[in-house]
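Run log, item B.
One chain of 297 residues. Sequence copied directly from the ordering sheet:
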Amino acid sequence: MVLEEKPARKLDFLDGYQEIEIRPLLEATSEFEPDLFILLDAPSFERGSRNNGARLKKLLGDLNSKVMIIDHHEEYGKERSDVYINNRRPATAQEIYELLFEKLKLKKPDGYAQTALLGIISDTDRHKFDNPVHRATYRIVSDLLDSGASIEELEASMGRYDAGQLEVLNNLISNITDSGQGYTYSFIDDELAKDWLRTTKSPDSFKLACEAFTQQFLKNFETNLWGFIVYLDIASGEGVYGVSLRSATGVKDVSKIAHQLGGGGHKPAAGAKFGASNVEAAIEKVKKAVSGADDED
């Protein structure tokens, strides 16, 4: 199992975490030459690899590798694959749990309960979104809790803030804006973001602060029920910006906006990365994508 980037949150308390390789996906695939390549929680190679999605796709074709995708997002930009599994569960972790342990009856490894529970409560933002298959989800969560998983332990491990996160949160709160068109937006000042690039400040704190603001404020400001934040994507360096979008269920399909920008996600939660000269230009690109998505509707 390979991830291109180390997760922002510390996950080394999970059994098996140390077995995950953190390195470029293209490099690992080239060395391993897999007969079967399984892409999780993303519909396309572009979403699975920051810079090498197209080259990864070509490499797998050259290797004649079979491709399996297990995902739960909207299907914009979905790759052609030999096997595609997407039952629109609220979390890819639930898709995998149902496939491996309920359909295929495979043996559950050590620590599976806490890992599966983390996957489900993280992707659902602790069950904040409407879930058409809630009975299946809560049944699995109940089984995981019966097997020794603990929401309180996960919260104690992951629900903490440091000074860097609070600095970024303060900037986002200071820049929060009512568009006057039914949505909220905010941004991180380029000066603050570039300071992160120049210093030894934690990129994880930067990312986690963006997540916290997105989850807690965007669709809950004044009377607005959806919105977005824009920020310099410090993992990619200068000139690349990220957008995170959130909406109350049924209010706005923000995955269409993300798709306009080369990204994707869910109807109530999506994101993308794209080039721009500065944060102001990036905001204008997102606003243009909002208009383009509205024209599609």
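Observations after the first pass:
- The chain has two domains: 2-156, 163-296.
- The domain at 2-156 is CATH 3.90.1640.10 (inorganic pyrophosphatase (n-terminal core)).
Flagged for discussion on Thursday.
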